[in-house]
Amino acid sequence: MKKEIRRIMVTGALGQIGTELTVALRNRYGAENVVATDCRPLPSETLRDSGPFQTADVTDADALDQVIRKYGIDTVFHLAAILSAVGEQKPQLCWRINMEGTLNILELGVRHEMARVIIPSSIAVWGKGAPLENTPQESVLKPATMYGVTKVCGELLADYYVRRFGLDARGLRYPGLISFETPPGGGTTDYAVAIFYAAVTEGKFTCFVREDTVLPMMYMPDAIRGTIELAEADFARLRHHADFNLAAMSFSAGELAACIRKHVPAFEVTYEPDYHQAIADSWPRSIDDSAARDEWGWKPDWDLESMTRDMLDHLRARLANKGASAARPS
Asked: What's the rounded Cα separation, in Å, for the pair 71 and 5?
């Protein structure tokens, strides 16, 4: 019998995805039914004022267990992770946070007979041997980063828990995510977020990947909607579980800069590739997400042109609001 989602915990709720997903889940399921958790104290007024928050480290299973018991949690969206660029600088930390956290969530999912555990993955699972164009659902997984290694392990663990313990664990492979709500968070694809901030504040940007670097990307509203749609999909229809490819658009750094320049004609971009370039070169240029489309009806809403226009509109409005606030007499 299908279990319904009623009381949700979001780990890594202060991160780029977690901040927006928590708000979306509260709007959908009721603010009191979505508990935001993170290892950091709560700085966000949006999350602080819109529902419950608990400080909890995902490597501390007892702390997580206490939150689950306190709020009667039946569903977890597990987003806490060290991302690719930071993971290369601190690989041991990346392994500990990403793997211990994931294993703790899966174990607690079984212990508490949860309705659902959602553990997102990433395009970082691919590396040498995988086709770079239209990378298929089933393909070689030989990542070039510690972050990618942990994501492969997380997918395999989640699938194991589905088979071995009957836990309803699900996940999707995010491409690079672009958002106006939160600043870049240490990922290789975060150049595509930082470039927008630079366009509206400085008028120039130094990009850490080559101009011709093409990567799969997605606007955050699509990512949030896709995550919730997967969580709510009929389990009986799913042939895959923890490793759904998810796609929306692919573009080069130069194409993104050119699209921004349509709206900010004087915008200047220079390219100075650093250690991020090797990471980017190991990832696909485009993704085949036909499994997600077939099994739970995935379809993106945003493309490069519409995303660029929306990003710039929101960031300009935010900058104008800050300026107006600063100008008001105290």
From this structure: 13
In tens, the pLDDT along 149-176 reads: 999 999 999 999 999 999 999 999 999 9
Contact 293, 140 (CB under 8 A): no
For 128: left if phi > 0, alpha if psi spans -120 to 50, otherwise beta; the answer is beta
Q: First CA to last CA across the chain, in angstroms?
A: 59
Length of the chain: 330
- Residue for token digits 């039914």? 33
Q: What is the pLDDT of residues 11-34, one digit of tens each?
A: 999 988 999 999 999 999 999 999
Concatenated DSSP letters for 198-228? HHHHTSEEEESS-TT-EEEEEEHHHHHHHHH
**CATH number for the 178-217+249-285+302-323 domain, one of 3.90.25.10, 3.40.50.1970, 3.50.30.50, 1.10.645.10?**
3.90.25.10
Gap between the Cα atoms of 199 and 251, Å rounded: 18
Which of the residues are catalytic? 147
Quote the CA–CA distance of 84 and 87 in Å, as a whole number.
Answer: 5
Tokens of 121: 């993955």
CATH architecture of 8-176+219-245: 3-Layer(aba) Sandwich (3.40)
The residues of the chain scoring below 50 in pLDDT are: 1, 326-330
- Cα torsion at 305, 307, 312, 318 (round to 10°)? 160
